[in-house]
Amino acid sequence: MTPSNPNNAVNPLPPVVVALFLILLAIELYFQAGSNGLAGGPSAVGWRLTALQRYGFSGEILRWMWDTGQWPAEHLIRFVSYPFIHLSFTQTIFAGVMMLAMGKMVAEVFGPVAFLAVYFVSAIVGALVFTVLTDGALPLIGSFPSVYGLIGAFTWLLWRKMSLVGENQFRAFTLIGFLMGIQLIFALFFGVSKDWVADLAGFATGFLLSFLLVPGGWAKLLAKLRQEK
Hints:
Order of helices and strands: HHHHHHHHHHH
CATH architecture: Up-down Bundle
Largest sheet: none
Low-confidence stretches: 1-7
Distance between the termini: 64 Å
């Protein structure tokens, strides 16, 4: 007989993670429909380029806003819109799959609000560090700084778990070391890309945010600060 409450072989993904992935996918399918002549007419071929110009993050624009003291919403939105614009379908799927894998674990432990906080704060900090440490001549697009933020939060979970069981905590950083190594190899063979600066900043942001976003983390921090006074 079939059990009345069978256990799922695979735990379902948190809805917030699925929703974010579907948004990424829908935007990419929109670009694909335009570039393949399925919608929008001849002008639709340039939809991706137009989106890159309007919603990609620009270090030069940020410097202009800083110098002039003007902060128009149409440019501020770039801090959180650039993760939704990718160069190709392959890049979108690759980033989306990584987001699903990392996002599932982060959202299940920290909750949906904390998951979104890691995703978008990592994007913002990644863009800021990218501007400071590079010339900002090329736009920053793609969700990898955000995904690396989720990797940072996942690394924190491993780091914390290993501390509790007495294992070597440096093993928690194996994944980020492996990914940075791959980027270095690609840079050596195909030219240096400065996007890794934003990716690494996103990772650090996700890792550090986890101290506050873990359930009870903010209360524990306040209690510790009071004890030090």
